[in-house]
């Protein structure tokens, strides 16, 4: 009887244990299933993150490509604009030439000449020449007769560069622009400070927002005028004291070939003389001959242009003195520099009768030569040396 009661008590107990074991087995299966799902989700998240990183990298590459192409399009736009302006200038010149040749071409047709019209045309030409001479101050009546001596001021070591004073200011500051591509001007209090051995510590550094190209820059009345690096023919006007760009212009026809064959980095050479700012450059349309452009330094507008007979072949530099262009020639290996082509923009000098002028004993080549009308001297850069040439002048004949 006791055994039977015990059996009745054990049956529910074992039934409960079996139920709990079944539940435990089911929980373990569920946990295993959940773990597998989490692992699957983690793998998918990792793949999603990797895909996102790949997409971001591809987007960065795409952005760089687009920005590069946009920069190229901007450059092409500037060049196209310059070419269009150059084309318009050439068309105007061609039209003037056509009109000129048309007016001078003989014709078999009997034409009655209006003497009053001819007199009017002659009067207008004379009046235009008179205004041109007034603009260029015809009282500037002297010309270069010789290069008297040289003084080697310093050697900085750079093969190419430019140094100068501001002829439009009363101060004695010296400006050094080293290299054919740079954006830092060194300003010295005077020439004695410049001549000291450690010039970097004595100089005030002026950093330009846009770098220059070549060595044909110049300083006039507190402004630096230079050819902007990366442009075909853009000239920048920069206020040195206020340190900002105040104006710019595009010089028609310039920038396609070097101004001088022996100074290939310089496409536009800016010069100062008694009459102000000039641009000297060469053009393929003139057979490589040098072109002179008079620029109003206040408005940055072209006032007049002259096609000269001076070739850029074997030329290394040029400068303006009293409305006259003097072109300096040399040999590719470097030798004695000489002036053997002269061009007077007002035609007051018979330039064909001017003898060849030789520079004093300096064997080598010039990177740049600038005329200072205030001191009547040439500031030159030759093979790393900063040189001053003193000049001899005579009356125009």
UniProtKB/TrEMBL annotation:
Keywords: Disulfide bond, Secreted, Signal
Listed InterPro entries: Olfac-like_dom (IPR003112), Olfactomedin-like_domain (IPR050605)
Main location per the UniProt record: secreted
Hydrolase listed as a keyword: no
Annotated compartments: Secreted
Any one GO CC term of the record: extracellular space
Membrane-spanning residues: none
Domain Olfactomedin-like, first and last residues per copy: 139-395
Protein's GO biological process: signal transduction
Signal peptide (UniProt feature, chain positions): 1-21
Cystine residue pairs: 140-322
SMART domains: OLF (SM00284)
PANTHER family with a match to the protein in the record: OLFACTOMEDIN-LIKE PROTEIN 1 (PTHR23192:SF13), OLFACTOMEDIN-RELATED (PTHR23192)
Annotated protein name in UniProt: OLFL1 protein
